[in-house]
Give the backbone structure.
Amino acid sequence: MFDLDYCSYPDCKKKVRTGSRLCEDHQSWQSVEHFSSLMTEKDLIGDIKAPGLTFKNLDLRNKRFIDCYFHHTQWINCHFDRSIFQMCFFDESVFMDTSFTKVNMKHCVFTDSVMTNIDWHGSDLISVNLNNIHAVNNNFSESDLYYSRFIAAYLKDVKMIDCNLKRVDFSASQRKGVNFKYSNTAEAYFDTEEIQ
Ligand SMILES: [Zn+2]
């Protein structure tokens, strides 16, 4: 015999087993609330593990993220401008209408992520793994992308104007409407032509 209780999420009428406060639909809501307020309140965000969550409308500017694990997350209308990132994992994630302008990022992983309408301009993105990303309307202009990898990435309407592309790897990438004006493409690695 189980006693049944009601989910404590506002207006949720679902029953839950005694001992759990929230129904299955609202378990992640509790985590999202928890991590959102933690990240908003702190300046140093270290060793957070928050996979699989969806974050919306967060102001995360001027933060320092170290050793964070955000595998398979979604970020919608979030702003990370002027933040510092070291060893953070955002693989298989979705980013939409989000900004990373003037960030300093080293050894971070975005493999297999989908990125739509993202502003990265004026950033240092050093040794960042962007392999197999699907990026549409991203602006990396005036950034240092030294030793970052875009292997097998799909890049459409992407701006990389006046960027440092030394040792940047674009092998097996698909590119359509990528603007490399004033960037040192001769120092990057390409083995495919732009799609017309
Ligand atoms: Zn509920």
